[in-house]
Amino acid sequence: MNLPLPGWLPWLLIAIGVFDLGLAWMMRNALVKHPEAATPNLRRVATFTQVSGLIAVAVGVGLLLFLR
Fold first, then answer.
1. What are the φ/ψ torsions at residue 21 (nearest 5 degrees)?
2. How much is the pLDDT for 14?
3. What is the pTM of this model?
4. Are 57 and 13 in contact (CB under 8 A)?
5. pLDDT > 90 in the chain, percent
6. What span, in angstroms and rounded, lies between the C-alpha atoms of 66 and 25?
7. Which pLDDT does position 1 carry in this prediction?
8. Contact 68, 28 (CB under 8 A)
9. Distance, CA of 61 to CA of 58 (rounded, Å)
10. Diameter of the chain by CA atoms?
């Protein structure tokens, strides 16, 4: 099935993914700088943010490459 996707959608997903990866990097640096605040839940939030950023970038790149 061929779905009509707007041309800006892959670029939006890539931008959101890069933003998420930057946010995860900043959170990891903050947790390293302040280890007393590094609870397991905060570590999970940083990991989830990084994973969601990687997924968004991968889907955006996949849309750019394979749905043209």
1. -65, -40
2. 98
3. 0.86
4. yes
5. 81
6. 29
7. 58
8. no
9. 5
10. 52
* Alpha carbons 29 and 7: distance in angstroms, whole number: 35
For residue 26, the one-letter residue type is M
Of 51, 60, 55, 11, which is closest to residue 27 (Cα–Cα)? 51
Q: Which residue has the tokens 């750019």?
A: 64
Contact 62, 4 (CB under 8 A): no
Burial class (CB in 10 A: 0-12, 13-18, 19+), 56: buried
Across the chain, the runs of DSSP E, i.e. the strands, are: none
- Average pLDDT (36-50) is 94
Q: What is the mean pLDDT of residues 15-19?
A: 98
Structural tokens at position 52: 């969601």
Residue type, 2: N
Residue closest to 68 by CA, chosen among 17, 5, 19: 5
